[in-house]
# Entry
Amino acid sequence: MSFLILKNKFTFSNFCFIIKLVMGMKKKLIIIIAIILLFIAGLIGYMVLSDLKQEDKLDKEIEEINNLMSSQEIDMDRVNAKLDQTVTSGDYAILERSMKSYLKDTFSTLFEIKDILENEKISSLLTIENYEEDGKDFVNSKRYISDVLKKLEDYKQKYPEYLTKEKAMSYISDKNLDSYYIDLYEDVYLKDMDTLKDDELDKAVNDLINILNVSNDVLNLLSNNQSSWVISNDKIIFNSSSLLDEYNSLLNSIS
# Structure
């Protein structure tokens, strides 16, 4: 009997102990949960703040590139330095590099054409100096015209493609980024891509193509009739009035 009484006392005491233990653990668990929640809240706050700082950096970087490209005298060394650097980190860095790769390829195509447009050699093709230097077969001049025409035709196909959203998105679509970054790239950083369109440049390219084609016709006229013209006193003289008329007509078409 005494054994049974002791057992009952032990069981009741043990039960009380367990209750206290559970209550204590429950309080500790509540405290731990509270700490974890505070940590998570702090982490989320940090991440949000960090993301805002990353976006602010990227916004400023793109704005500085736009300012450089909008100046009257564009310093491509400074532009390329901006395009080659990365000011953000993590997924934002992937977004930044994607955007800058797109801009770099687009600018490269654009300035390749502007270099051609500003090349003084084009305006010297139909000069007396060039007639004397490269005539009467004009092999170098015709080769130059052919090369430039090819570049201009390539530009007419390639540059408008860069101004499509499909082309721009191809620089980021394979980077396995969260949809947030894809949307940011598309909705924020591509919203002003229409500013890259340049109707005046398109007209200048078409005008130059016409000039080069006519210049090629003039050189062909001269090379096919080598015995019908000479250079004298810094002037071209023809022994055929019909040839002179044809020559003048071609020049007038581009004057």
User: Anything to note?
Assistant: The radius of gyration is 37 Å.
